[in-house]
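Hi P.,

Sorry for the delay on this. The queue was packed all week, but I finally got your sequence through. Input first:
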Amino acid sequence: MKKSQIVVLGFLGLGLLDSLITFGFPIDFTYAGYSFIPHFTFIGMLVYLNDKSWLNRILISVSIGLFFGILFANSFGFYALLFGVSGFLIGICNRYMTTDQRKFLVIFAFVILFDLIPYCLLRIFSQDYPSFITWFLHMELLTIVLDSVEILFLMYIEQVMSRFFKIRNLREQKRVRQKIKQVHKSRR
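Then the structure:
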């Protein structure tokens, strides 16, 4: 399989994983219990796009946001806008991600903002939305803890996949060099 095909299947898998977790552990909007909101697709997008060019970041992140909004979140433009802006900004922050620890912290900040922006919008436009403390304790606290594990997991997967593609490219180059040697030997 080509790298682009694997990436597309990976993002579809992350979206399905988000949906399955949400189906298995439904979000409690009554705030009577604790909830976890998975962000595998969003975190995967940030991990994948942080070193891409600005145009690729925008196009890929808006596409992921559109598909995520249509297929998994039942909203059309909101996630496309949120993913697009995040995809653009993660590339600007790339120069600060010199180590894995910094990369983790930058992505972690983006994930918190990914939840905080919709909360603020709903809080402004809805009178009945809960207070920040209630929202944070019942919705965001468990999400933050589990999102940190998601970030570490997806950063590890990114490293494994980059090594896999590097090894595959080296093997392909070696195969081409062997074919060139065979052609040169056959001409003698």
